[in-house]
Amino acid sequence: MATVRIPTPLRKLTQGKEEVAAAGATISEVITDLEKNYPGIKARICDDSGEVRRFVNIFVRDEDIRFLSNLDTPVGDSDEVSIVPAIAGG
Known about the structure:
The protein is α+β, with helices and mostly antiparallel strands. About 20% of the residues lie in helices and about 25% in strands. It has one domain (about 1-85): Ubiquitin-like (UB roll) (Roll), CATH 3.10.20.30. The termini are far apart. The relative contact order is 0.24.
């Protein structure tokens, strides 16, 4: 299972946990597993079409999935996945 780092705004869905384990061979499968264990989290990460929201960044092994294979990015058992909300400044 991969370790998924949960950002502070989403921790209310993970009972306050900063890190959770999730199964899946791809980011899409990891998100599906997160939703199974923490209902409501997928809607915060993905839009209605199932794509990662524009203001959410997901990293696997410190690489942005948008520059890899997006939701089809492979995830290994020892990988760390980080969900990072984009920060807007002004």
